[in-house]
Amino acid sequence: MPRRTGKRVWIACVAALFLCLPLFTDAAFSQEEPGGPVQGGEPRAEDPAAAPPAQGEAGAPPEGGQGEPGQFGGTQQAEPMRIPAMQPGVDAAPGGLVEPGKEPDVVPPSVIFERETAGEPKAQVEEKQQNPMAVPASVAMTMDYAASSDFEDLPGGYSHTRANLLSNYKYFSFDYEFRAYSWSDSNKFTGGKKDEPFEMLHHTRFGLDYYKNFDSVWGWFAGGDANFGFEDKFERAFGYTARAGLYNHWTRAFTMRMGISTTQNEVQSLNLPVIIMDWNAEAQKRTFSGTFGFPVTEFRWHLNDTSVLSIGGKYENRCWYLSNTNTVAPKGYFSTEDIIARLGYTQEFFEGFTATVGITGYFKREESICDSVTQKLYILNPGMGVGAQAGVEWRF
Description:
Layout: H1 6-29, H2 109-116, H3 122-130, E1 138-150, E2 157-169, E3 172-184, E4 200-213, E5 218-230, E6 238-248, E7 254-264, E8 269-279, E9 287-294, E10 296-302, E11 307-321, E12 333-350, E13 353-370, E14 377-379, E15 385-395
Antiparallel strand pairs: 1-2, 1-15, 2-3, 3-4, 4-5, 5-6, 6-7, 7-8, 8-9, 9-10, 10-11, 11-12, 12-13, 13-14, 13-15
Protein backbone atom coordinates (compact mmCIF):
# COMPACT_ATOMS: atom_id res chain seq x y z
CA MET A 1 0.00 0.00 0.00
CA PRO A 2 1.53 3.39 -0.94
CA ARG A 3 2.61 5.63 1.92
CA ARG A 4 3.42 9.30 2.08
CA THR A 5 6.34 10.86 3.85
CA GLY A 6 4.50 13.08 6.34
CA LYS A 7 6.24 11.47 9.32
CA ARG A 8 9.65 12.24 7.77
CA VAL A 9 8.80 15.94 7.80
CA TRP A 10 7.71 15.60 11.44
CA ILE A 11 11.02 13.96 12.41
CA ALA A 12 13.04 16.63 10.56
CA CYS A 13 11.19 19.45 12.37
CA VAL A 14 11.74 17.83 15.75
CA ALA A 15 15.46 17.33 15.04
CA ALA A 16 15.81 21.02 14.17
CA LEU A 17 14.02 21.94 17.40
CA PHE A 18 16.44 19.82 19.44
CA LEU A 19 19.40 21.63 17.87
CA CYS A 20 17.95 25.05 18.75
CA LEU A 21 16.75 24.39 22.30
CA PRO A 22 20.23 24.22 23.95
CA LEU A 23 20.94 27.76 22.72
CA PHE A 24 18.54 29.23 25.25
CA THR A 25 18.19 26.43 27.81
CA ASP A 26 21.20 27.26 29.96
CA ALA A 27 20.38 30.97 29.97
CA ALA A 28 16.78 30.33 30.95
CA PHE A 29 17.41 27.85 33.74
CA SER A 30 20.81 28.74 35.24
CA GLN A 31 21.74 31.44 37.70
CA GLU A 32 25.29 32.77 38.12
CA GLU A 33 27.04 32.25 41.44
CA PRO A 34 29.05 35.06 43.08
CA GLY A 35 32.31 35.50 41.21
CA GLY A 36 30.91 35.18 37.71
CA PRO A 37 30.15 32.35 35.32
CA VAL A 38 32.03 29.11 35.10
CA GLN A 39 34.84 29.09 32.56
CA GLY A 40 36.67 25.97 31.36
CA GLY A 41 34.87 23.80 33.88
CA GLU A 42 36.32 25.67 36.95
CA PRO A 43 34.65 28.51 38.88
CA ARG A 44 36.25 31.95 38.83
CA ALA A 45 38.09 32.90 41.99
CA GLU A 46 35.89 34.66 44.51
CA ASP A 47 36.61 37.41 46.98
CA PRO A 48 36.85 35.73 50.42
CA ALA A 49 35.01 38.65 51.94
CA ALA A 50 32.07 38.04 49.62
CA ALA A 51 31.82 34.33 50.42
CA PRO A 52 28.52 33.29 51.95
CA PRO A 53 28.53 32.70 55.73
CA ALA A 54 28.89 29.13 56.91
CA GLN A 55 26.06 27.17 58.47
CA GLY A 56 25.26 28.43 61.92
CA GLU A 57 26.69 31.93 61.38
CA ALA A 58 24.54 35.01 61.18
CA GLY A 59 22.98 35.42 57.77
CA ALA A 60 23.56 31.83 56.79
CA PRO A 61 20.87 30.21 54.64
CA PRO A 62 18.58 27.84 56.55
CA GLU A 63 18.87 24.11 56.03
CA GLY A 64 16.15 22.34 54.08
CA GLY A 65 13.77 24.15 51.76
CA GLN A 66 13.39 23.75 48.05
CA GLY A 67 15.56 25.15 45.31
CA GLU A 68 15.85 25.16 41.57
CA PRO A 69 14.15 22.42 39.62
CA GLY A 70 16.48 19.43 39.44
CA GLN A 71 16.51 16.30 37.36
CA PHE A 72 13.80 14.82 39.56
CA GLY A 73 11.71 18.01 39.82
CA GLY A 74 11.63 20.74 42.43
CA THR A 75 10.23 24.23 42.83
CA GLN A 76 12.10 27.21 41.45
CA GLN A 77 13.06 29.90 43.98
CA ALA A 78 14.92 33.18 43.63
CA GLU A 79 18.22 31.68 44.87
CA PRO A 80 19.80 28.33 43.95
CA MET A 81 19.75 25.51 46.50
CA ARG A 82 22.79 25.39 48.81
CA ILE A 83 23.73 22.07 50.36
CA PRO A 84 26.45 20.90 52.76
CA ALA A 85 29.70 19.73 51.21
CA MET A 86 29.75 16.06 50.26
CA GLN A 87 32.45 13.52 50.86
CA PRO A 88 35.03 13.34 48.05
CA GLY A 89 34.07 10.82 45.39
CA VAL A 90 30.40 10.63 46.39
CA ASP A 91 28.05 12.36 43.95
CA ALA A 92 30.69 14.94 43.24
CA ALA A 93 29.62 17.88 41.12
CA PRO A 94 30.84 18.05 37.51
CA GLY A 95 34.38 19.39 37.17
CA GLY A 96 36.04 17.46 39.99
CA LEU A 97 35.69 16.38 43.62
CA VAL A 98 34.20 18.68 46.23
CA GLU A 99 36.82 20.17 48.54
CA PRO A 100 36.12 19.99 52.28
CA GLY A 101 34.33 23.06 53.54
CA LYS A 102 33.05 24.07 50.10
CA GLU A 103 29.72 23.56 48.42
CA PRO A 104 29.18 22.30 44.84
CA ASP A 105 28.00 24.65 42.10
CA VAL A 106 25.53 22.02 40.83
CA VAL A 107 23.13 20.20 43.13
CA PRO A 108 23.44 16.44 42.50
CA PRO A 109 20.25 14.57 41.60
CA SER A 110 20.66 12.23 44.56
CA VAL A 111 20.50 15.14 47.03
CA ILE A 112 17.46 16.64 45.32
CA PHE A 113 15.79 13.23 45.37
CA GLU A 114 16.47 12.77 49.11
CA ARG A 115 14.96 16.17 49.90
CA GLU A 116 11.86 15.59 47.76
CA THR A 117 11.15 12.14 49.21
CA ALA A 118 11.78 13.06 52.85
CA GLY A 119 9.04 11.55 55.02
CA GLU A 120 7.69 9.18 52.35
CA PRO A 121 7.41 5.43 53.08
CA LYS A 122 10.61 3.50 52.36
CA ALA A 123 8.95 1.18 49.84
CA GLN A 124 7.62 4.15 47.86
CA VAL A 125 11.04 5.82 47.83
CA GLU A 126 12.73 2.63 46.60
CA GLU A 127 10.19 2.30 43.78
CA LYS A 128 10.89 5.86 42.63
CA GLN A 129 14.63 5.12 42.64
CA GLN A 130 14.18 2.02 40.48
CA ASN A 131 11.62 3.47 38.08
CA PRO A 132 11.82 7.30 38.26
CA MET A 133 9.89 7.90 35.03
CA ALA A 134 6.96 5.60 35.70
CA VAL A 135 3.53 7.11 35.06
CA PRO A 136 1.47 7.54 38.25
CA ALA A 137 -1.68 5.51 38.69
CA SER A 138 -4.49 7.14 36.72
CA VAL A 139 -7.85 6.65 35.03
CA ALA A 140 -9.03 8.85 32.15
CA MET A 141 -11.99 9.10 29.80
CA THR A 142 -12.10 11.17 26.60
CA MET A 143 -14.58 11.88 23.82
CA ASP A 144 -13.57 13.07 20.34
CA TYR A 145 -15.65 14.19 17.39
CA ALA A 146 -14.20 14.62 13.88
CA ALA A 147 -16.41 16.54 11.47
CA SER A 148 -17.18 15.17 8.02
CA SER A 149 -14.30 15.20 5.53
CA ASP A 150 -14.42 14.29 1.84
CA PHE A 151 -11.98 11.78 0.40
CA GLU A 152 -9.22 13.19 -1.79
CA ASP A 153 -9.31 10.67 -4.63
CA LEU A 154 -12.72 9.01 -4.27
CA PRO A 155 -16.30 10.26 -4.02
CA GLY A 156 -17.85 10.36 -0.57
CA GLY A 157 -16.58 10.99 2.93
CA TYR A 158 -17.26 10.31 6.60
CA SER A 159 -17.35 11.74 10.11
CA HIS A 160 -16.60 9.78 13.26
CA THR A 161 -16.96 9.89 17.02
CA ARG A 162 -14.70 8.01 19.38
CA ALA A 163 -14.61 7.32 23.09
CA ASN A 164 -11.52 6.23 25.03
CA LEU A 165 -11.01 4.68 28.44
CA LEU A 166 -7.38 4.72 29.61
CA SER A 167 -5.71 3.54 32.81
CA ASN A 168 -2.15 3.29 34.16
CA TYR A 169 -0.71 1.56 37.21
CA LYS A 170 3.03 1.41 37.84
CA TYR A 171 4.51 -0.30 34.77
CA PHE A 172 1.18 -1.34 33.23
CA SER A 173 -1.33 0.45 31.02
CA PHE A 174 -4.61 -0.36 29.33
CA ASP A 175 -6.90 1.51 26.98
CA TYR A 176 -10.04 0.75 25.05
CA GLU A 177 -11.26 2.81 22.09
CA PHE A 178 -14.69 2.72 20.48
CA ARG A 179 -15.35 4.44 17.13
CA ALA A 180 -18.66 5.12 15.39
CA TYR A 181 -18.58 6.14 11.71
CA SER A 182 -21.15 8.00 9.63
CA TRP A 183 -20.57 7.66 5.86
CA SER A 184 -21.75 9.78 2.94
CA ASP A 185 -22.04 8.44 -0.64
CA SER A 186 -20.07 5.31 0.20
CA ASN A 187 -21.88 3.39 -2.55
CA LYS A 188 -20.10 5.56 -5.14
CA PHE A 189 -16.70 4.03 -4.37
CA THR A 190 -17.84 0.51 -3.40
CA GLY A 191 -19.32 -0.39 -6.77
CA GLY A 192 -22.91 0.41 -5.86
CA LYS A 193 -23.01 -1.68 -2.67
CA LYS A 194 -25.75 -0.28 -0.49
CA ASP A 195 -24.22 -1.19 2.87
CA GLU A 196 -21.68 1.11 4.45
CA PRO A 197 -18.15 -0.30 4.86
CA PHE A 198 -18.65 -0.47 8.64
CA GLU A 199 -20.34 1.46 11.44
CA MET A 200 -18.53 0.54 14.67
CA LEU A 201 -14.92 -0.42 15.42
CA HIS A 202 -13.14 -1.48 18.62
CA HIS A 203 -9.49 -1.25 19.62
CA THR A 204 -7.86 -2.48 22.85
CA ARG A 205 -4.28 -2.16 24.03
CA PHE A 206 -2.38 -3.79 26.91
CA GLY A 207 0.96 -2.10 27.60
CA LEU A 208 4.07 -2.61 29.72
CA ASP A 209 6.86 -0.03 30.15
CA TYR A 210 9.88 -0.27 32.45
CA TYR A 211 12.58 2.28 33.26
CA LYS A 212 15.86 1.55 35.06
CA ASN A 213 18.70 3.85 36.13
CA PHE A 214 22.34 3.17 35.29
CA ASP A 215 23.34 6.11 37.48
CA SER A 216 22.02 9.57 38.36
CA VAL A 217 22.19 10.70 34.70
CA TRP A 218 21.66 7.72 32.38
CA GLY A 219 19.11 4.94 32.27
CA TRP A 220 17.33 2.56 29.91
CA PHE A 221 13.72 1.78 29.08
CA ALA A 222 11.91 -1.06 27.36
CA GLY A 223 8.27 -1.87 26.77
CA GLY A 224 5.62 -3.07 24.42
CA ASP A 225 1.93 -3.27 23.61
CA ALA A 226 -0.43 -6.04 22.59
CA ASN A 227 -3.09 -4.59 20.29
CA PHE A 228 -6.46 -5.92 19.17
CA GLY A 229 -8.41 -3.99 16.52
CA PHE A 230 -11.64 -5.53 15.24
CA GLU A 231 -15.13 -4.91 13.92
CA ASP A 232 -17.04 -7.57 15.84
CA LYS A 233 -14.66 -10.46 16.74
CA PHE A 234 -11.08 -10.95 17.89
CA GLU A 235 -10.31 -13.18 14.89
CA ARG A 236 -6.96 -12.27 13.28
CA ALA A 237 -7.08 -9.03 15.26
CA PHE A 238 -3.72 -9.34 17.06
CA GLY A 239 -0.77 -7.02 16.55
CA TYR A 240 2.08 -5.82 18.73
CA THR A 241 4.45 -2.91 19.29
CA ALA A 242 7.88 -3.17 20.94
CA ARG A 243 10.18 -0.31 21.94
CA ALA A 244 13.48 0.17 23.75
CA GLY A 245 16.12 2.82 24.22
CA LEU A 246 18.04 5.07 26.58
CA TYR A 247 17.12 8.16 28.57
CA ASN A 248 19.38 10.92 29.83
CA HIS A 249 18.83 13.68 32.40
CA TRP A 250 20.49 16.22 30.10
CA THR A 251 20.20 19.21 32.45
CA ARG A 252 18.22 20.03 35.54
CA ALA A 253 15.29 20.94 33.28
CA PHE A 254 15.55 18.40 30.45
CA THR A 255 15.20 14.66 30.12
CA MET A 256 15.80 13.02 26.74
CA ARG A 257 14.51 9.61 25.59
CA MET A 258 15.94 8.03 22.43
CA GLY A 259 15.15 4.62 21.00
CA ILE A 260 13.37 2.57 18.37
CA SER A 261 9.83 1.28 18.06
CA THR A 262 8.49 -1.47 15.81
CA THR A 263 4.84 -2.25 15.04
CA GLN A 264 3.87 -5.54 13.43
CA ASN A 265 0.59 -7.11 12.31
CA GLU A 266 -0.78 -8.83 9.23
CA VAL A 267 -1.17 -5.48 7.47
CA GLN A 268 1.58 -3.15 8.70
CA SER A 269 5.26 -3.42 9.42
CA LEU A 270 6.49 -0.08 10.78
CA ASN A 271 9.87 0.78 12.30
CA LEU A 272 9.90 4.26 13.77
CA PRO A 273 12.23 6.29 16.00
CA VAL A 274 11.39 7.24 19.57
CA ILE A 275 12.76 10.74 20.23
CA ILE A 276 11.13 12.51 23.16
CA MET A 277 12.39 15.40 25.29
CA ASP A 278 10.62 16.40 28.51
CA TRP A 279 11.28 20.04 29.37
CA ASN A 280 10.64 21.63 32.76
CA ALA A 281 8.27 18.81 33.72
CA GLU A 282 7.75 20.17 37.25
CA ALA A 283 6.77 23.64 36.05
CA GLN A 284 4.70 25.80 38.37
CA LYS A 285 2.36 28.70 37.64
CA ARG A 286 3.24 31.30 35.02
CA THR A 287 5.93 29.10 33.54
CA PHE A 288 6.25 26.87 30.49
CA SER A 289 6.91 23.20 29.97
CA GLY A 290 6.77 20.79 27.10
CA THR A 291 7.25 17.38 25.56
CA PHE A 292 8.99 17.49 22.20
CA GLY A 293 9.64 14.63 19.84
CA PHE A 294 8.15 11.81 17.84
CA PRO A 295 5.43 10.52 18.07
CA VAL A 296 4.23 13.24 20.51
CA THR A 297 4.96 16.97 20.78
CA GLU A 298 3.22 19.35 23.18
CA PHE A 299 3.95 22.85 24.52
CA ARG A 300 2.27 23.91 27.79
CA TRP A 301 1.71 27.27 29.47
CA HIS A 302 0.91 27.00 33.19
CA LEU A 303 -1.40 29.92 33.86
CA ASN A 304 -1.52 29.21 37.60
CA ASP A 305 -1.39 26.23 39.97
CA THR A 306 -4.51 24.63 38.48
CA SER A 307 -4.87 25.85 34.86
CA VAL A 308 -2.85 24.92 31.77
CA LEU A 309 -3.06 25.90 28.09
CA SER A 310 -1.48 23.45 25.67
CA ILE A 311 -0.85 23.07 21.96
CA GLY A 312 0.69 20.09 20.24
CA GLY A 313 0.30 17.13 17.98
CA LYS A 314 0.84 13.37 17.72
CA TYR A 315 1.37 10.70 15.10
CA GLU A 316 -1.12 7.85 15.36
CA ASN A 317 -1.59 4.62 13.41
CA ARG A 318 -4.31 2.00 13.84
CA CYS A 319 -5.41 -1.21 12.15
CA TRP A 320 -8.77 -2.97 12.44
CA TYR A 321 -9.74 -6.36 11.03
CA LEU A 322 -13.16 -6.44 9.45
CA SER A 323 -15.70 -9.20 10.02
CA ASN A 324 -16.15 -12.24 7.83
CA THR A 325 -19.64 -10.99 6.92
CA ASN A 326 -18.66 -7.44 6.03
CA THR A 327 -20.43 -6.70 2.72
CA VAL A 328 -17.78 -4.29 1.37
CA ALA A 329 -14.52 -6.01 2.42
CA PRO A 330 -15.14 -9.42 4.03
CA LYS A 331 -12.16 -10.63 6.08
CA GLY A 332 -10.47 -7.39 5.11
CA TYR A 333 -8.95 -4.60 7.11
CA PHE A 334 -9.12 -0.85 7.67
CA SER A 335 -5.84 0.95 8.45
CA THR A 336 -5.13 4.57 9.29
CA GLU A 337 -2.15 6.87 9.76
CA ASP A 338 -2.92 10.37 11.02
CA ILE A 339 -1.23 13.45 12.43
CA ILE A 340 -3.59 14.98 14.97
CA ALA A 341 -3.08 18.52 16.31
CA ARG A 342 -4.80 19.85 19.43
CA LEU A 343 -5.28 23.16 21.22
CA GLY A 344 -6.54 22.47 24.73
CA TYR A 345 -7.32 23.91 28.15
CA THR A 346 -6.97 21.83 31.33
CA GLN A 347 -8.41 22.73 34.74
CA GLU A 348 -7.70 20.93 38.00
CA PHE A 349 -10.78 20.94 40.26
CA PHE A 350 -9.21 19.16 43.21
CA GLU A 351 -5.95 17.34 43.79
CA GLY A 352 -5.40 14.77 41.08
CA PHE A 353 -8.67 15.39 39.19
CA THR A 354 -8.57 17.40 35.95
CA ALA A 355 -10.90 18.15 33.04
CA THR A 356 -9.77 19.07 29.51
CA VAL A 357 -11.54 20.62 26.52
CA GLY A 358 -9.96 21.30 23.17
CA ILE A 359 -10.12 21.77 19.41
CA THR A 360 -8.49 19.16 17.16
CA GLY A 361 -7.23 19.15 13.61
CA TYR A 362 -6.51 16.12 11.41
CA PHE A 363 -3.68 16.24 8.87
CA LYS A 364 -1.81 13.83 6.56
CA ARG A 365 -4.58 11.27 6.81
CA GLU A 366 -3.58 8.06 5.02
CA GLU A 367 -6.42 5.54 5.24
CA SER A 368 -7.41 2.47 3.25
CA ILE A 369 -9.83 -0.47 3.15
CA CYS A 370 -8.67 -3.79 1.71
CA ASP A 371 -10.93 -6.64 0.61
CA SER A 372 -8.93 -9.79 1.41
CA VAL A 373 -11.14 -11.89 -0.89
CA THR A 374 -10.78 -9.87 -4.11
CA GLN A 375 -7.57 -8.05 -3.02
CA LYS A 376 -9.27 -4.80 -4.02
CA LEU A 377 -7.85 -1.77 -2.23
CA TYR A 378 -9.84 1.41 -1.53
CA ILE A 379 -7.48 4.34 -0.85
CA LEU A 380 -9.63 6.78 1.12
CA ASN A 381 -7.26 9.51 2.40
CA PRO A 382 -9.73 12.05 3.82
CA GLY A 383 -8.81 15.69 3.54
CA MET A 384 -7.90 17.90 6.47
CA GLY A 385 -10.59 17.93 9.13
CA VAL A 386 -11.49 19.64 12.41
CA GLY A 387 -13.08 18.33 15.56
CA ALA A 388 -13.53 18.76 19.30
CA GLN A 389 -12.37 16.88 22.37
CA ALA A 390 -13.37 16.69 26.04
CA GLY A 391 -12.14 14.46 28.83
CA VAL A 392 -11.47 13.94 32.52
CA GLU A 393 -8.53 12.33 34.34
CA TRP A 394 -7.97 11.21 37.92
CA ARG A 395 -4.43 10.61 39.14
CA PHE A 396 -3.86 8.95 42.49
